[in-house]
Design a protein that fits this description.
homodimer, alpha+beta, BirA Bifunctional Protein, domain 2, Rossmann fold, 8-stranded mixed sheet, 18 helices
């Protein structure tokens, strides 16, 4: 692609051009902005180069030589300087020479099926203070079928984009006037969130957690004591001043939980203490990286902190992993992987604790028969952690549950318990979420189900569609009866044609539509239409009610008649 | 009292000394700080003066003469200057002369029963930049019985102080380290709050409200557009800066609701739109006025905003008043009064709208047969309002529900609907809360019930107390069965004596205690003890379970066997 671009723009300056998942990109500094119409032209050039079947040859040269070769390529010169050692590797095909570590395919003829997919702006070295280059993305596959499959998936992904679904299904908004990255939940989105939150709370209480509510602001000093000011300053909002004291809006919920724990002394008999909160936190992210619900500036974590002894740590981690698995399963995410992140170079606490804790995390996963990969050095500075990443229906990865051991906060805040020996011991703290955040989790649900959520999560579960005005009273009667049974039912009473109402309910991904006409009224039967188009008739409302009730209470993932 | 103080401190400087509800106070500038031991000495002097039965005489004098009389009383001189007109009134008994509008009782002998109750610091003119004076509070009654009754009530009030109960019942904390006025809800407090919130949400959904979630920060510009920056600036937190834009933590929820409403156009057929949110807001209050849960810096309003046409306003206000009455009733507050606050001097909107809206509020109350008082000029600048104040069991007043009409925001944000005429019309906005805030409402509940909350609100509803270790398994079995039935039951498994466990459960105001011993196990009967001390035996657990279930579902206010 770079050779093709050069042949069209002889003065092009070249940035970097790596291979990525499913494809590749290259960053160029060009005399004019590219438009989508440029892509077929570049593709045509590429096909010519491929047809020439030119071999890729490489050689190693001294940096001095490379600097002469790339004398008119300032970005390449920077790259040459950055490469360690005295030599760099060059690849050449035909007359085109590039700086590249390799490896490459043997010749241009080996590239069979490819497509340039998009153009984007990209700062040189990802730094917004450096020049903006133009990036061209492309994909390459072995077969035409694989490319078609990929393009189909991309199309489906665009259709399932949660930002698009959020608008179509009227679930949430982010307003420029209020601020980027700040999510406003519309009524229907709020119903989904409430259902998830209630389920989450009940499940936590069952599993021995206590719920808390803590404020959204606190004195900055608290965050200095904790180390957050030092380690996460870039993500914190600027302080507010109140009567000569600085406050910040909280970036995490842990400190409020530590204060509550420390309100009184705890004996070893009372441990573990498990505090859970749906706590809304605010973290600064550059506006360039904000993305729908999945990268935001304010989000509600399904947070919890466990205060326990080292001896209890394994059982607690097992409990969290079980809960996490149960949650993933319940919401329909069956494809997930575990990652164990170990001690980074800069860390708090002592080596022995780190080793014990890392070992404990491994044991917990092994006890549950869960396979995992190790991410060496990827732990937080305060302790090792387990991250669970799950895939949605289209194979895209999502950050899911996390379990983090913390040696730092107990030390800094002297979070103790009285042991059997009558003496004070530091607790081990565990930070964990099982959904991540309400915002990102809704995004993953929407994309996984393409907006057609399971019945228990659907904002409107049953849309009752009267054929004519004379069926309206009867429709309202059905609505009342369904609501009484805890079903979110609604009557579409608008003076519109039945087919239009059905189409709209389908667009809104409402699981069940009940069409009420003369026959249904006379026979007291229920004509049901699923959003998928399937239809059936229930002999009476009770039968249908039971079906919906079961779909809700059993949290059925598939919509059934 | 002032004469008595002067006889003890001849150099005392006198501030003001008005009559207040149930008693009186006087502010003094004294050469030394008073201690509680001074009060009996002053009381003794007062009794001497009362025994002399000296008549109170008054006369009017020219201000010039008054200035000479009070030459050594700087505070009185200030007061003389402030009184309009040329003359002031003086009262004299014996040799003591004071500036006073009157009226007074005829002579000191008419004062029969009194008691000095406390000493407090008070800024001259309530201004923290002026000198701090010493205030002595006292009460006076016609009879000894009335005084005793009052003192008993005070004692009871101190016992029922929500700050004290909050600590004793382990419900919440405010930590100096996190910041004054910021409430942290402990597990038991959070249970109460969740029960209230769930009830509140369900009730709102039943009544046609939609729930929302909106963020806690927004761009300052939004609050400039709304007028809050101009009118409420003193209560707003200082701005935070994000990428060159100023943000503030929200002092109210309305703007987020306005943005959501404005996401799309609304036809008259869709009105009224009712948006409800348990929204946590932050307002600056001077640390001097903060008080427990009832005056705080962060609180969760049970907020809602109704967008309707003027024609719908009356029905909407009726609906809110009905909901407010239902809430007050459900929580056991039967003694409440309504106040209609009318147009202040400085107001937004036009006169005609104000009159129509004020009239509409009156009509709504009249339609429901509710008596009300008028607070002239006490409306918000943006519209007239109804405030409901209720009394707790000890006769203390609490600020309750409020319904406020708003002409300002619809105008400033162009909040419209499409009328039957196809044109845009401004909506009328109603701001309302029916509990006020979660924090203040919990305070009122605690003080009203002296911490002994109705069963449905009690964090622990049933404490199961095994007599010996051999009853423990059976106790856990009962706990599981009760939990299964939705009852918050707990086993006190500590190796302590039964009587101690009962006493502690009583101190924790747990409604029901089940004592499980040999007989209860053998006969499968249930020995129940109420926190009030009453006892009975149920023939089986089912019978007891039904009793508790009914207490919960019927939200019974009285605890019954």
């Amino acid at each position: 692609m770079a050779e093709a671009v050069q042949s069209i723009f002889p003065d092009a300056k070249f940035g970097i051009g790596p291979a990525i998942k499913n494809g590749f990109y290259y960053d160029f500094d060009l005399p004019r902005s590219l438009t989508p119409e440029d892509l077929p032209v570049i593709e045509a050039k590429m096909r010519e180069i491929i047809a020439r079947d030119e071999p890729f040859n490489w050689r190693e040269v001294a940096k001095e030589e490379a600097r002469q070769i790339f004398a008119k390529q300032p970005y390449k010169l920077e790259l040459v300087d950055d490469i360690p050692g005295d030599k760099v590797r060059l690849y050449q095909q035909g007359s085109f020479l590039d700086l590249c570590r390799g490896p490459h395919v043997a010749s241009t003829g080996e590239v069979t099926v490819f497509k340039l997919t998009s153009i984007a702006g990209a700062y040189w070295r990802g730094n917004e203070h450096l020049p903006m280059l133009q990036r061209i993305y492309g994909v390459a596959f072995d077969t035409r079928e694989a490319l078609d499959e990929h393009l189909k998936r991309l199309e489906e992904a665009a259709r399932n984009d949660h930002r698009r679904l959020g608008k179509e299904l009227d679930l949430f908004s982010i307003y420029e006037e209020a601020g980027p990255g700040l999510v406003h939940w519309h009524p229907k989105g709020a119903i989904i969130r409430r259902v998830i939150e209630d389920f989450w709370k009940d499940e936590h209480i069952k599993r021995g957690y206590d719920l808390l509510y803590t404020p959204h602001i606190a004195k900055l000093d608290l965050w200095k004591t904790s180390g957050h000011w030092e380690f996460y300053r870039d993500y914190l909002y600027s302080p507010m001043e109140v009567e000569g004291q600085e406050y910040i809006i909280k970036p995490m919920n842990c400190l409020g939980h530590v204060l509550i724990y420390k309100t009184r002394r705890h004996s070893y008999q009372e441990l573990p203490v498990r505090y859970a909160e749906l706590g809304t936190v605010y973290r600064y992210e550059r506006s360039g990286v904000l993305f729908g619900l999945s990268r935001v500036r304010g989000f509600t974590q399904d947070d919890a902190h466990i205060f326990c002894s080292f001896e209890q740590l394994k059982d607690e981690v097992v409990g969290v992993l079980e809960l996490a698995g149960f949650m993933m399963e319940t919401f329909g995410f069956t494809n997930y992987k575990l990652f164990l992140s170990t001690r980074p170079e800069k860390y708090a606490g002592n080596l022995e604790d780190w080793e014990k804790a890392t070992e404990t995390l491994s044991q917990a996963m092994e006890q549950l028969g869960l396979a995992y990969q190790v991410d060496p050095g990827e732990g937080a500075f305060y302790g090792p952690k387990i991250d669970i990443k799950f895939e949605d229906a289209l194979g895209r990865g999502w950050q899911g549950p996390t379990v983090q051991v913390d040696f730092n906060l107990p030390q800094r805040f002297q979070v103790n318990y009285i042991g059997q020996d009558g003496k004070e011991h530091l607790v081990v703290m565990v930070h964990r979420t099982v959904l991540g955040s309400m915002e990102r989790f809704l995004a993953s649900l929407l994309e996984h189900y393409g907006g057609a959520l399971p019945v228990w999560l659907s904002p409107v579960q049953v849309m009752i569609i009267p054929v004519a005005d004379r069926h309206l009273d009867y429709a309202y009667q059905m609505e009342a009866e369904l609501k009484q049974a805890g079903v979110r039912a609604k009557v579409d009473a608008r003076p519109e044609r039945m087919n239009l109402k059905i189409r709209q309910a389908q667009l809104e991904k409402i699981p069940y539509m009940l069409v009420v006409g003369d026959r249904e009224m006379a026979e007291a039967t229920v004509s049901v239409r699923l959003r998928s188009g399937e239809q059936t008739t229930y002999p009476d409302l009770n039968g249908f009610k039971e079906r919906v009730r079961l779909a809700i209470t059993a949290k059925e993932k598939e919509l059934k008649l």
